[in-house]
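Database export, one record per block. Field names are fixed; values are copied verbatim from the stored entry.
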Amino acid sequence: MSITLSTKTSPFPYASIAIATYTQKVDINYDESVDAVTLDFEGSQISANDEIVSVLANAGGLAGDSVKTAAYFELAKTVPTLTAIPDILALLDSLDNHLAYRTFLVGHDITAADFIIWGSIKVAPKFIGFLKNGQQHVHLLRWMSHIESLEPIQTALASLTAAKANKARSNKTAAGFALGLQNAKEGQVVTRFPPEPSGYLHIGHAKAAMLNQYFAKMYNGKMIIRFDDTNPTKERAEFEETILQDLELLNIRGDKITHTSNYFDQIYELAIQIIKSGKAYADDTEQLQMREERGKGIASAHRDDSIEDNLRHFEEMKTGSPEGVRWCIRAKISVDNQNKALRDPVIYRCNLIPHHRTGDKWKIYPTYDFACPIVDSLEGVSHALRTNEYRERNAQYQWMIKALGMRGVDIWDFSRLSFIYTLLSKRKLHWFVDNGIVGGWDDPRFPTIRGIRRRGLTVDALSQFMLAQGPSQAIVSLEWDMIWAINKKVIDPVAPRFWAIVKQNSVFVTINGGPSAPEVKTLPRHKKNPDVGEKRTVFTSTILVEQEDAISFDDQEEITLMDWGNAIVRSKTTGPSGDVTSLTMDLHLEGDFRKTKKKITWLAQPSDDYPLVDVTLLDYDYLITKKKLEETDDIKDFVTPVSEFREEAFADANVSTLTKGDIIQFERKGYFIFDGTAEDGKLEFIRIPDGRAANLASKAGKPGVVTVEASVPPPSGTTADAGPVPSSAMYKVEKIYGEDSVKPVSTTKMYTVANVYE
């Protein structure tokens, strides 16, 4: 049983989705291909908004007085037809007068009449305009606000907003990929993801891998995972394993796994071929001099050496002799092309370090710029997806293909992914690991695949985010809020709910009217999703609450104990510091939870039979204090002094059933991912950002939180006792009035009145 509708249905059936969410009798499905709303209920299909509201009201016991409700249904039909201002004001006056002493239109509880009138006004712009801009319909405005403040109504409106966002995201993604891949044919597209096995994959690599897989699937083609292992100095076999594991974490699996080293023999033969054709030459120019000559457009002294000399030097390079290692092979493209990537790039160089796959067979290795187009062509790659940092090298890529007479490959550029306050440089990330500022390459503060997955980012959210970016050419530093907001939408419907109470200054509460002995009840882990399972909640006459909640209670205030009921605060004891030390409450289960302002989590007093679980809640800040580091910046000057925060807490015993990697919500605290059991036996939970600005802001100075300070080498140009450094980069200006305090003198002609505080 469900309601199916489009976000563009007009007039939009607000009443239908609101009462559907309130009664929870049917599901709501947004389908942009339909034109009208349809209720599929008990074998029949209903398409009129008022009939849908009536059916669901009867099913949910919200029909109310049949005569009065019917009158409001008729009234709702007239709302869209009224255009004359006197008629609109007359109807608003009538409703406002009726609601002057009433909470709802019919009776003392919400009924179908409230839903149908609210929904009809919601789609009438003139009515909304008069309500919001005028002051004479305060009771009707109060009623409208109350209806929209109800949790089910908020949920319904949020689902509509999410559906619109998904539609926009789908349209944006579709637009981004609308052109598809040039020259692509169904079933013949082959893409490749070529990581270098020299480190761990980060979120930037994730975009490349996901886009390659996306296009391969889009055209029913194939994707190759190829390890670009042409530099034995940096590469290790173990990194290949970690890269494959990282890709597995992203649900990315290639149709074939290959290595550039598989083709070393063929690449070598092609190098000889290009030398013989006069399109490459051997050069022994020193590296710094070569860089300077290329920058100034100066030809190498060996550029016009004979083919025989070039081949002889290449053969000497192959042996790895002292003479051979002095030389390299350069493509003979241009000396002074405006595109400096075309200024005779190096395509082969010596390296005497044994290769992790081929051992010491080779002493010469092709550069990436030479090997990549060759292997792409040999492996049947149809489309090479490259970040636009390689755009200047695209002409070089195509030159190599043409010079060697090989099959062509289409290139598709997309922008490199970059985030604020985030480092993607392997060298800089290594610095954090080497200096012990982070715990390793899977640290939750790291942008590595392991790091972001450990912090709770789901593959689904990452995929949605990457595809929303599409093959864009824009080079921007993105905020993290969007990706975490998408992640929240993914995890919220399925994350089980538990409770945790911060240990510091927690308060015991005596509940008068509570059970004389502990009672255990089975409750759903997720109130809106029974498939998540059940949990056991212990009820006792003594409970534990947080200091922050306890200190906010007023005497005789009625509050709601979540999953239990209302209670009235009867007494509160405070200590010398002003902290609450104990509370007494009277259980008041007859109270209406909808009327209380404070709804708090709590835990039963621990006992041998019903113990609580010691947990540590971890939160993190950015590793650096500058949005984007420049090449000239010294990383040591911008390390966040404190970026890990630990809070000790009690949690209900249900968390003991979790396994590492499970995502949950500690209600009123946020989403967390279970990171396993620490050496001290405590369960550790890492907070998952939810995309809100406050959640992504610095946590420094948060009360009750233990900070773990990074051991950072002193910033350049400073001493240990230099004193506080102002955060402003402005130059210092002397005070206008000097250092002496200035007492303003009044020039008013009013008579003098003594200060009441003196």
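Remark 1: The CA atoms of residues 239 and 445 lie 21 Å apart.
Remark 2: The mean pLDDT is 87.
End of record.
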